[in-house]
Amino acid sequence: MKPSPNDIPVSVITPPKGFEAIDFAELRRYRDLFYFLVLRDVKVLYAQTILGFAWAILNPVIQIILFTVIFGKIARMPTDGIPYFLFTAVAIIPWTYMTESMTQSSQSLVSGQHMLGKIYFPRVIYPLTPIVSKLVDFAISLLLLLAIMLYYRVAPTWNLLLLPLFVIMMMSVPAGIGMWLAALAIRYRDVKFAMSFIIRMLIYTAPIVYSASSIPDAYRVLYSINPIVGVIEGFRACLLGLSIPWIYILPGIVTAVILLTSGAVYFRRMERIFVDVI
Amino acid sequence: MSAADIAIRIEGVSKVYRIGLKQQRHDSLARTMMDFVRSPVANYRKYRSLYNFNDIDVAAAARERRPDIIWALSDVAFEVRQGEALGIIGRNGAGKSTLLKILTRIIAPTRGRIEIRGRVSALLEVGTGFHHELTGRENIYLNGTILGMTKREIDRKFDEIVDFSGMEKFLDTPIKRYSSGMTVRLAFAVAAHLDPEILIIDEVLAVGDAAFQRKCIGKLQDVGKHGRTVLFVSHNMAAVTSLCKRAVLLNEGRVAMVGSAHDIVGAYLNSGSNMGAAREWTDAESAPSGDVAHLRSIRVVSEHGHPADTVDVKTTVGLEMVYDVTEPGHVLLPHYYVFNEDGTTVFGTLDQDPRWYRQPRPIGRYKSIAWIPANTLSDGTLFVTCSLITRSPDTVQFDENQIIAFRVVDAGGEGTARGDWTGKMAGVVRPLLDWTTDYTPGR
Q1: Helix, strand, coil content of chain B in percent (nearest 5)
Q2: For residue A52, is it within any domain?
Q3: Is residue A274 a contact partner of residue B51, using CB atoms and an 8 Å limit?
Q4: HSE, side-chain direction, 13 A CA sphere, residue A275
Q5: Is residue A36 part of a domain?
Q6: Which stretches of B318-367 are DSSP H helices?
Q7: How far is B192 from B194, CA to CA, in rounded Å?
């Protein structure tokens, strides 16, 4: 049955000019595709492994143990009275999510370059898919974290209600950086090599192995421009029932918003030439 | 024709690529950054120039023929009507794939405007997005959504898709265990159930075994019959002429011709040889001559006697020569030799028309046509040598070696030697033969 002329969608293709915002209506139309791509990522990662999803937590668990032994027992870093194991665990879980999704997001266009040249769907789906698919790993690690918290008899407080805010912040950082890096990675293959190196450095810029209170007062705002600081401190405060240190969090929120919007703008601008430069 | 009858309107579309900055383009961020530091302004401009063409003055660029600029497409414009099947043909590098990629939004045009009424689905490749670790079922959904279907749509058509592919037993096995033929069947089954208003297909029919190919072509013809618009890019002239009524010929990024599929295919095939299908000598001096006879013209004619440069394999073809005899009383023997593209002689033929055979000829102008029966020739380009001798003693009056060429097109179908077969068909000739079969019932 032929559709009546009224419901035939009309689209126009013209050379792209200047600033183009993200087409959310188009993203909605492709939501099924987004879902299946996320599903694919999740299934494929642990396909044909024996341990399956256990790998999702093995990496963070080993890191937590390692840090506890090295920085907790041997170096005895101050942690504002929180047991070191717990202190690190609460930080490593969101950290793992952020670095893994950021890395995968930055390579999303390169690993999907075949599809890029053969079919059209909103390009921004490429860097955003890992942001969602890594949440599965995150969710599993969160369960582990809850188990640890139970062990240390941490009582839930009203702060937990703010956790969703920090999860959103946790997602927007790799989303923004991922969009920037994905657009850069398709032209410059350096990005791939730089990533692992940068991440190894980044871990010390956030209060994962040490407490943020170790930072001298004068530098606290500067320090907090790094949004990872805000995420980690926010997670700690929510889960462990401490008072929320907004001074570490607010600058980070601003940065996260800037990263997200500038990443989207840059990505959309570069989108036009992705296939031309593969 | 109202605007609503046009499915796709393409106006002034051009696509430019900048090349040749090779010596200064960097694939490494580090080097780019170092260059940037050394001369920031110049390098920033160069980096931006790769994709930014605002500074190109179109007329100037065309005039100057700058070596660093390639016009993959120049000012392409044509319309595709609702419900029609349009073929797009051209040599490799003519711009077909570029045009398709622009139509399907994979790349952006540098100039121009395209208006599309209807949902477009593109098939530039089968099995896009297939992942070997996922099962057949999962890949159906993944590939289907990549092609633009919604989950609900796939749910609805799922059984049909599985049926078409014949992969029911293997649905829940990861496709890395499939043979390549099985993967193709699955991919094609998904693609065959796309239901857009406009379908764009690029050469994907070259995969799969013959039986499956026939199934797919059949399905495509169905799509056309249901009023869907189809844009079909192919090198397979038989497929183009059988699926499409109209076609566009692209050459070096420009639209060379738009017309009936038959004409366009003919033009495309003809553009390969510098030879025409007709030669005429208007003045006696330049005409190939002997003492007795002079060749005036030679050409290929269709079954109705009209000049032609492309003929359908299932029609009669005539090779016509016009010659003047200026001395009476000689017996003449006009003859032709026909060669194919490989240089093989397909056949030779002598004029044995009983009226003049072995008869001494009076002075006058003669027009002799050699009629090649339908379903004799194979498809491709054929070259004709035309000569005439006087007999006893045998003296050559004129002998023009491969002076004209014509194309034979085989669209298959009813009444041809090829019939339903869409695969390769070798052979210097392609006769339609009668077959007889005796049958004994088995036990």
Answers
A1: 30, 35, 40
A2: yes
A3: no
A4: 20
A5: yes
A6: none
A7: 6
Average pLDDT over residues B142-158: 92
* Nearest to B202, CA basis, from A112, A113, A118: A118
Is residue B189 within a helix (H) or strand (E), and if so which, with residue range?
helix B180-192
- Tokens representing B435? 């077959």
In this predicted structure, the answer to whether residue A267 has a pLDDT above a threshold of 90 is yes
Residues 6+ apart with CB under 8 A from B239: B205, B217, B232, B422
Do B259 and B296 have their domain in common? no
Q: How far apart are CA B52 and CA B44, in angstroms?
A: 12
Q: Do B234 and B139 fall within a single domain? A: yes
Q: Do B146 and A43 touch (CB under 8 A)?
A: no
Q: A119 lies in a domain?
A: yes
CA atoms of A28 and A34, how far apart (whole Å)? 9
- pLDDT value of residue B66: 64
**Whether residues B216 and B307 fall in one domain:** no
- Residue among B50, B116, B128 whose CB faces A11 most closely: B116
Decide which of B270 and A146 is more confident. Answer: A146
Residue A231: its pLDDT value, please?
93
Query: Which residues, in sequence order, are CB contacts of B96 under 8 Å at separation 6+?
Result: B88, B89, B90, B202, B233, B250
DSSP A162: G
Instruction: Enter the tokens of residue B255.
Output: 């639209």
Instruction: Select the residue of A47, A117, A187 nearest B106 (Cβ to Cβ).
Output: A117
Q: Could you identify the residue written with the tokens 């390769």?
A: B424
The residues, any chain, with a CB within 8 Å of residue A110's CB and separated by 6 or more, are: A185, A186, A189, A192
> Would you say residue B421 lies in a domain?
no
Q: How many alpha carbons fall within 13 Å on the CB side of residue A26? A: 11
- The answer to whether position B72 is within a domain reads no
Which pLDDT does position A3 carry in this prediction? 46
Average pLDDT for chain A: 87
What pTM does this model have? 0.72
In one letter, which amino acid is B196? P
H-helix or E-strand containing A109? helix A84-111
Interface touch A188/B125, C-beta < 8 Å: no
* Stretch A149-175: mean pLDDT: 90
- Residue B109 has its nearest CB partner, among A11, A13, A35, at A13
pLDDT at position A2: 46
Comparing CB atoms, the residue among B105, B108, B142 nearest residue A15 is B108
Are B234 and B161 within one domain? yes
Tell me the pLDDT band of A72, cut-offs 50, 70 and 90. Answer: confident
CB atoms A32 and B105 under 8 Å: no
Are B338 and B404 within one domain? yes
CB contact set of A53 (below 8 Å; sequence gap of 6+): A46, A137, A140
Per-residue pLDDT averaged across A151-179, rounded? 91
Strands (E), B195-329: 198-202, 229-233, 246-251, 254-260, 278-280, 293-301, 310-312, 317-325
ipTM: 0.86
Q: Give the number of other Cβ atoms within 10 Å of residue A157's Cβ.
A: 14
Q: Does B103 share its domain with B29?
A: no
Let me know whether B289 and B157 are in one domain: no
Spell out which residues of chain B touch residue A18, defining contact as CB-CB under 8 Å: none
* Res. A259: pLDDT tops 80: yes
Contact A115 B227 (CB under 8 A): no
Do B353 and B312 sit in the same domain of this protein? Answer: yes
Contacts of B124 in chain A (CB under 8 A): 118-119
* Cβ B270 vs Cβ B309: under 8 Å: yes
CB contact under 8 A, B29 and A188: yes
Kindly tell me the burial class for residue B301, based on how many C-beta atoms sit within 10 Å of its own C-beta (0-12, 13-18, 19 or more). Answer: buried
3-class SS of residue B81: strand
- Give the A:B interface size as CB pairs under 8 Å: 119
Q: What are the backbone dihedrals phi and psi of residue B250, each rounded to the nearest 5 degrees, phi first? A: -105, 140
Domain membership of residue B404 as a residue range = 278-409
Number of alpha carbons in the 13 Å side-chain half-sphere of residue B251: 12
